[in-house]
Structures are given as C-alpha cells and as structure tokens.
Specification:
- The complex is a heterodimer of chains A (about 500) and B (about 160).
- Chain A is α+β, with helices and mostly antiparallel strands and about 500 residues long.
- Chain A is about 35% helix and about 25% strand.
- In chain A, the strands form 6 sheets. Chain A has an 8-stranded antiparallel beta sheet, sandwiched between helices. A 5-stranded parallel beta sheet of chain A has the order 3-2-1-4-5, sandwiched between helices.
- The two termini of chain A are about 30 Å apart.
- Chain B is mostly beta strands.
- Chain B has 2 domains: about 70 residues, no CATH class; about 70 residues, OB fold (Dihydrolipoamide Acetyltransferase, E2P) (Beta Barrel), CATH 2.40.50.
- Chain B contains no helices and 17 strands.
- In chain B, the strands form 3 sheets. Chain B has a 9-stranded antiparallel beta sheet, with no helix packed on it.
- In chain B, a hairpin with a 3-residue loop joins strand 3 and strand 4.
- Classes of the chains: A alpha+beta (about 500), B mainly beta (about 160).
- Chains A and B meet through helix 8, strand 17, strand 18, helix 12 and strand 23 of A and strand 1, strand 4, strand 5, strand 7 and strand 8 of B.
C-alpha cells in the first residue's frame, strides 16, 4: 500500500490531488519550479522539493529530476495530474522502472491512445465508430502534403486537419475549401512539429452542428470497467472548453447506454487501468463518433463527481494500490455545471491577460465548489496556462443549476487582472445554452465578430462615479497596489508547450 | 472634485459634488461602505455594493456582476498612443518576419507571425504604408506591448 505520493504537477490540479491524498491519510510531496515558489499548492503538501530550471522543459517536464525528487523523499507513487507528463508513456515507464507506483494507465495504453492515428485504428478494430477520415503516415513533408491533399479530396470539405500527437487545438486546422488547404496544412504541420516534435497530420470530416460528449470511465485490476455517465463540453473557444455539464442536456437513457458501452469497449481494447475519458462527437443525426481518449484525470472531472457522488481522484489512488474501485452501479442525481475562469480578455479575441489578483473573492453558498490554485494577492504570470479557477455548481435540476451559476458568477469578484467572468455570465443567458442546444460552434455562431459586453450606460456611469469617489475617498491608500507584472522570473517561455493538451 | 479617466480609449471627465456622506455625479450617489467597498445608488434607482481597488493608475470596479477597469489620468496628462508602431498583443515568440524595412505593404497584409499561448497569431498592417523598422527577428521572445515593427502610413 502506498503511504506517500508525489504530485508531478502544479496549480489547481496539484491542489485537487494533494487534498485527496490528505483525505486518504497519505503523506504528500509537491515539486515546485522556482517561479512557483510560495503558490498555493506548495502549502498543501507535507514536503516540497524545489526543481532547478527556468523553463517548463527543465522543471515540470524534467522526468529525471522528478523521479529523483520521489526517490529522495521516500515516495511510493507518482500522480501526474493532467497536462505536463500525464500522457507520456516513457515517463510512466520510467516511474515504474524506478520501483514506484504510476497512478495511471499502463505505458502501452497511453501510447495506443496518445497517438491519434493509432487510436483511430485501435478503435475501428474494437468496433467503436470513428469520424470518417484518413490517416497519412508519411514522414516526408512534401510527400505528406501531396498524400494529405489527395486524402482531403476523398474525405470531402469542410474538413479538419489534426496532428497525430496533437491536442488542445494545437496542430489543428479547419479547412473549408481546397483553395485554403495548403496554407492550413503547412501551418498545422509547423505547429505540430514545434509542439510535439511530430508533424504527422491526418484528415477528418468536419461534422458541423455536433455536440462534444465525453464518457468518464474507471477500470481496476480486478477486471472491472465501468462508465460514470457523460459530460457535455460542446461550448469551446479556440478549441478549448469553457462550459461543461453533466448530465448532457439532450441525453437519453438509450444513448447514454450505447455511448457508455462504446467507451467501456474503448477502454477494454487497451486494457485500461484507472480513470480515463473517452471523447465523442455526437452528430445532429444522432450518430456518435470516437474522437480520442484522454488517459488521465480531466479538467472537468468535478461535474461527474457532483452528479455521481464518486470521488474520481480517490478512486485513482485506490485502483493504483490494486484495490477494487468502490463505486458500483451508476446513479445520476441532479445537474452540475462547470465554467473555467481564465485570465484573458474575451473582448479581445480571448487573449491571455496577466496582472495581480488584487482582489479575488469567489462566490460561496449552497451547491458551489471552487477548484483553484490561486488566492488573493497572487500574480498571474505568462509562465503557465491562464486558467485561474474552475467554478462548479450543483442543483437538483438543470434550470436551477444555471440560475445558481448566474448568481455565483455575479458574486465572483476579481480585480487587477482581466478575466472572462462577464463572458461566462452572458453565456449563461445564451439561448442555446439555456435550451441545451449547444454545439462546438456555439460561441462563434453567437459572436461571429468577437464578444463585447452588453452595453449598460447607467452601469458604466455608475462605475465612473465609483472610481472617482474611490479616488476622492482615498481608498487607493488601502489597496495593495502591486501594479507591476514583473516577478523577475527570468526568460521563461510560457509557450513552450506547458502541456500536451489542456482539454 | 474633478477626475479624468480613460474608458476604453475615450477620455471621460467626472466632476463629483459633495454630499453629507459621499459624492454625487450625474444622478449617481456613492457612499463609502467599508475598507474596500462602496455603496452606490445608480441614476435608475438600482443599488449595489461595489468592490474597488487601484492597481497602478487603474481603478478596478466590480459592480453588479460587471468588472470595469478605468485608468485615472493625472491632471495635465494626455492619453498617448504609439504612432505607427505595431505592438505584441501578448507575450510570445516571433516565429517569422514576413517583411523588411523599406518594403511597401497593403492594409491587411501579414507582417509577422507570433506564437503565443499555444497559438499562432498574425500581425497585420492596419493600413497601406511602408515598413520603416523591424525590431524583432524570428526566435526572439517579446513581451506584451513590445513594438514589433513600425509602419509609415502612405498618403
């Protein structure tokens, strides 16, 4: 049995895992890059090992340093969280070779699912439906472009180009017509090579008007593989999810059963172990197609936890110890919604923002869960992903959950850094969100020319009067006006692929 | 008491009148609630508790679910925009420079490719003109607001 766990991650998900370990009576070790010193997750661990290095590659992606940290602290197992090393088969193998428990699926399962083209083939063989498309295995750039172009003609436009090693929108391009093909293919390849060192691209038909539905699965070593129902995560901007819910607003019992069975078959096809997510596109026709499997805990796992009553991270720990999972038959109760709070400017193409969290007051009250790695007074730097927090609400019905989310977002105060709170709040009033008719293009369809906050002249005037009065009252003398954004972190690249994907 | 703010690029003047407990402007009454909060009664009668905090010159105000950032302009100061410069919209890395100094470009033409936050961004010419300077080359890291190139508008 494991007694001490090292969490090879940072921020919000490190906090989530460290807390689960604490609840399970396990000792914990955090690893921390120099520019993360003093952040919240380091305070939740029993021990902190400082990593040396000034880039993500030399810290959170440095396998040798992390395994050495585990060795030197007498750690029994490593939990990778999501992003970073969580889907690196070579890391999983290195952890096991070091005599430690890897809290996740086997390196073989990670490999089978991590390479998109291999995954498509494996799924086809297992009888799981995949999106119509073609794989192109050629490594040579010129040859690959010709082969891709030919494949594109057969698949038909509009289509999607996807990097075989890709994720999180990187190395992915939608192409509407043959004229735009070449430029898109070159750009997708370049992004893929830069991010993953692998320029292989495949072609998939673009299924417009589809929903993104994913099924959470759990599998243990006793041979049990179950699904925990679906999450709908259709609402995305730049191919990154911002609004997730469970159950799916248009899901039926029959469809859940069919998709659940397909997800379980997908997991069994790679002898999966632990927690994983099988992502599907649900077309307007009612057909569903395998997209990919994420072989790790997922950002949006809390909505499933709230409607099933299962603590997924706790189950991961149990399963890694070789114990049978503790959850049995699926019982869904009520409705849960998660929104991702980002430091970004939704009125300016969702560009990431940085700055101090001078005031950070999350909402409270019934049915509210906040998973975050920051607190008031922290600085948002360009070093890492700009997600500040996940706000999750639960209520007996979907309508009430939406009402609760609106109230919670209205209460959420973040001053000092631009965030997407207002965007999320307006999203809760969006016709398609309210009716549940969301698709992967809901945001572009509703705001084709970009989002701008709804005008409210009375409110704008009141804000001006408040700022003026605050100045006249001398309130700035109470403010913690850190102002600057320079935390002297050195030349760290925030863009050096902080994760293979942050779905 | 008079204050000037930059609100989304527009300069707005606010002249407060004193009341017993606070200030009034354009039918908006503002009183102090506690250390970091104000109580506001809007012109249309709505009331709210308002969080306010100043960071640098910017007042951040949270009011009824809305967050507004207002840059206070010191008396005598004027809003200044960088003339013909094309600036980085966020921190990132220059992937490719597509033009050289002296080159004539057309509005909408891509001048530089920037990689930031996992995505590629194109820096495009806002108007026809001549490139007068290229300040960053491929591979260089740039911070938010860094002037990437300069463009002289053609007449």
């Amino acid at each position: 049995m494991m007694k001490k766990i090292l969490v090879a991650n940072r921020g919000e998900i490190a906090c989530r895992v460290l807390r689960a370990c604490r609840e399970a009576g396990l000792k914990t070790v955090a690893v921390c890059a120099p520019n993360d010193r003093g952040t919240l997750f380091t305070e939740l661990a029993d021990e902190v090992v400082m990593l040396e290095g000034d880039t993500i590659t030399t810290t959170y992606l440095d396998q040798a340093q992390i395994i050495e940290a585990a060795r030197s602290t007498g750690t029994d197992g490593i939990h990778p969280g999501f992003g970073f090393l969580s889907e690196r088969a070579d890391f999983a193998q290195a952890v096991m070779d070091a005599g430690l428990v890897w809290i996740g699926p086997s390196p073989h399962a990670i490999e089978q699912m991590g390479d998109k083209m291999t995954a498509r083939k494996t799924m086809k063989a297992a009888g799981v439906p995949v999106i119509p498309g073609e794989e192109v295995e050629t490594e040579d750039e010129a040859e690959a472009l010709i082969a891709l172009k030919e494949a594109a003609e057969r698949v038909g436009y509009p289509l999607l180009l996807k990097a075989s090693s890709g994720g999180g929108g990187k190395g992915m391009r939608a192409v509407s017509s043959p004229a735009a093909f070449e430029e898109a293919a070159v750009a997708a390849r370049r992004e893929a090579v830069a991010a993953f060192g692998d320029g292989r691209i495949y072609v998939e038909r673009l299924l417009s008007g589809s929903k993104h539905i994913e099924i959470q699965v759990l599998a243990d070593r006793t041979g049990a593989t179950v699904h925990l129902g679906e999450r709908e995560c259709s609402v995305q901007r730049r191919h990154q999810k911002v609004f997730e819910e469970a159950p799916g607003p248009t899901m039926t019992d029959d469809l859940r059963e069919a998709m659940g069975a397909a997800a379980v078959a997908a997991a069994q096809a790679v002898t999966y172990e632990g927690a994983g997510t099988v992502e599907f596109l649900l077309a307007p026709s009612g057909e569903f197609f395998f997209l990919e499997m994420n072989t790790r805990i997922q950002v949006e796992h809390p909505v499933t936890e709230l409607v099933t009553g299962v603590d997924i991270v706790r189950e991961q720990l149990r399963i890694a110890d070789g114990l049978p999972m503790s959850c049995s038959d699926l019982h869904l109760r009520g409705h849960a919604i998660e929104v991702r709070l980002y430091a970004e400017d939704p009125a300016n193409g969702f560009l990431p923002a940085i700055g101090p969290l001078t005031v950070f007051r999350p909402p409270e009250g019934p049915g509210i869960r906040l998973d975050t790695g920051v607190r008031e007074g922290d600085e948002v730097t360009p070093n890492y992903d700009p997600m500040l927090a996940k706000l999750i609400v639960w209520a007996p019905s979907r309508d009430e959950a939406l009402e609760r989310m609106r109230r919670a977002l209205d209460e959420f105060v973040v001053l000092g850094t631009t965030t997407n709170v207002r965007f999320l709040r307006e999203l809760c009033d969006n016709e398609d969100v309210v009716s549940g008719a969301t698709t992967t293009t809901t945001i572009e369809d509703r705001w084709p020319n970009g989002w701008a906050p709804q005008r409210d002249e009375a409110l704008a005037n009141a804000a001006l009067a408040c700022a003026a009065a605050a100045e006249s009252f001398g309130m700035h003398r109470n403010s913690t006006s850190s102002g600057g954004t320079d935390r002297a972190d050195g030349p760290v690249s925030p863009f050096a692929t902080l994760s293979r994907r942050y779905p | 008491m008079q204050h000037r703010f930059n609100m989304n690029g527009d300069e707005v003047e606010v002249t407060l009148s004193k009341t017993d407990e606070g200030w009034v402007w354009e039918g908006v009454t503002v009183n102090r609630h506690d250390r970091g909060r104000l109580h506001v009664t809007m012109a249309d009668g709505r009331t709210a508790l308002v969080h306010a905090a100043k960071v640098g010159d910017v007042w951040w105000v949270h009011l009824d679910g809305h967050t507004v950032a207002l840059e206070r302009m010191e008396p005598g100061a004027s809003s200044q925009q960088h003339g013909g410069g094309l600036v980085a919209p966020m921190p990132g890395k220059v992937l490719e420079t597509l033009v050289e100094p002296g080159e004539t470009v057309q509005a909408g033409q891509a001048l530089m490719v920037l990689e930031a936050m996992k995505m590629e961004h194109r820096i495009v010419a806002a108007h026809d003109g001549t490139v007068t300077a290229v300040h960053h080359q491929a591979g260089e890291q740039v911070s938010q607001g860094a002037v990437l190139l300069e463009l002289e508008e053609s007449n």
